[in-house]
Amino acid sequence: MRTVKDRLNRSCAQRILRMMVLGSLVGASLTGEADEPKLPKVVLVGDSIRDGYAPMVAKKLAGQAAVVSVSEFGRNSSDLLNGLDKVFREQPDLVHFNCGLHDLAKSNDSGMYEVPIDQYESNLKQIVQRLKNDTKARLIFATTTPIVDERHAGRKAAFSRCEADVLRYNEAALSVMRAVGVPIDDLHEAVAAAGGEKLIGPDGTHYDQAGYAKLGEIVASCIRTSLSSPDYRLELTTVASGFDGKQTWVHARAGAIPASAFSLATESPAVVMTLQKLRVDRSDVFSGLLEFRSFNLGKTWKGPLPQPTLNRQAPREGVEVVPCDFWPKWHMRSGKLLGTGATFWYDTTRDDHLPNAPSETAYATLDPATWSWNEWKTLDMPKDPKFRFSRAGCTQRYDLPNGEILLPLYFLLPGTKHLVSTICRCSFDGETLSYLEHGSEMTIPSDRGLAEPSLTRFHDRYFLTLRHDLRGYVTSSRDGLNFDTVRPWKFDDGSDLGSYNTQTHWVIHSDGLFLVYTRRGAGNDHVFRHRAPLFMAQVDPEKLVVIRSTERILVPEHGAGLGNFGVTEVSPDETWIITTEWMQPNTAPRYGSDNRVFVAKIHWNSPNLLVSAKRF
């Protein structure tokens, strides 16, 4: 009885002459070296299946990238690890690599694998580390495509049986790549969506002409996206940690103050982070705001520093009100750090929410000349009942060049449970934030409607992402006030993004629009509302979809939610995502969380490697 390994060897032997010629074509005549010596070099690494679709990849990227295949028949993860010098010699700009098929090939019917899954994971980690250390290339990992085991009667049954083996190794690989921050080209999912076993050739492992053509198109599209996207390096740091079982850090967000705005002896911007404590035995019962400060790009931090002017206020006996859901951001026109958020009202006899209390937009300013926060205030809104509950909690604003502010906020329709999101155009004179007008009123007439909107501008359009109990939504606008009909967030393959009942925010680069989010489907069913890990991926601004192949993990999960976070533009070369482990005492500590305050630093590298002016 032939094993998968036997079939692979037989098939490769039959194809070896044709594949050597094909590999030669890809490695030489298709590189474009004669005509386009400065094209970015893409190296494909894998086994014989990679060589099968390499010519199509080269064809699709002609004039944009030089494609070289250094794939070898029968290569497993150990072979790839030991043969990386062949990749290094090519001096690649991008490496699209795969291994797994020959790791999972059973040597006999006992269930033993050629490379056990734990060794496979170890090999992958070492491969990624060496590629990062010895090249400056962008990396993409491709999952193993479907195969059919001919030992079992019936092609459909054989496909299903062998899929269990493939999926085990693919899931292991996906876990490793997410942990080390390598983007994934899920060829397995793409082939399944395009016809699955119908694309596989007679030998049950390799593909027919149509299958290789489809694979080549998929891989070329993923590579083109990567080459035309801003590249970045991630650095994850921890500001604070420690959980006492009673209170947890939440809502850590920061603003960056330019060095030119203060007189301290530093060339780095100052980063001022606000955050507060939350009682874990109550819902949204917050302390006053505290602060961490750094003057050396987060190498060291001073804090936490109490801020009396940002503490709870007592407007009358037995009642306190506190600013929360706060987001500080530098306001260039006034030269002030302006933070906006919401107010929560408490009955001090119970230290719990005051029934039927209003909610307002809270704001405060820090003057770098004195390094002190002014007393927090609330934004005066029109005298309309719907604005009795209206706030800018956890929302990402956009400042206009003239100093006006486009401030996202949400309000509650009287007599309903539906929250409505809108954008307020406000003036700000350095002291007072004033309402001028508001734009489209957006809601979904289900659950709690739309809340926590976040706004940004990319090129000539404004983009808005919104929270709903069941899914996230997105829309865009020409003027920042009047928006198109909202639509659910989806991946570019049409599947649902899986983000729900939590925040999503924007990261902007001159060459790319990115979304930061949490979602289902990442082995995170044990996390409250799937609010970890924290992902970032590029957004197609025309189609308003998340490009799945660009997804990377910014902050891994350890059982605690990470969904309440902020984005800080520190410099044109550096963006920070700041979040805390929101502790759930009954579950989170079991998975290694410790109420850490994380700063995920995005260091932007080369923005666009494509030399062709044509965009696809």
Blueprint (SSEs and pairs):
Blueprint lengths: L3 H24 L13 E5 L2 H13 L5 E4 L7 H6 L2 H5 L4 E4 L3 H4 L12 H18 L3 E5 L12 H26 L3 E2 L1 H8 L14 H19 L4 E9 L6 E11 L12 E10 L6 E9 L7 E5 L6 E4 L2 E13 L4 E12 L4 E2 L7 E7 L4 E2 L3 E2 L11 E2 L6 E2 L5 E8 L6 E10 L4 E6 L12 E8 L2 E7 L5 E5 L9 E2 L16 E5 L2 E6 L16 E7 L4 E2 L5 E4 L9 E7 L2 E7 L16 E8 L12
Parallel strand pairs: 1-2, 1-3, 3-4, 4-5
Antiparallel strand pairs: 6-34, 7-8, 8-9, 9-10, 11-12, 12-13, 13-14, 13-15, 15-16, 15-17, 18-20, 19-20, 20-21, 21-22, 23-24, 24-25, 25-26, 27-28, 28-29, 29-30, 29-31, 32-33, 33-34
Describe what this molecule looks like in 3D.
The chain has 616 residues and is of the alpha+beta class. It is built from nine helices and 34 strands. The strands form seven sheets. Strands 11, 12, 13, 14, 15, 16 and 17 form a seven-stranded antiparallel beta sheet that branches. The protein has a five-stranded parallel beta sheet with strand order 2-1-3-4-5, sandwiched between helices. Strand 21 and strand 22 (433-438) form a beta hairpin. Helix 1 (4-27) packs parallel to helix 2 (48-60), helix 2 packs across helix 9 and helix 8 crosses helix 9. The longest helix has 26 residues, at 155-180.
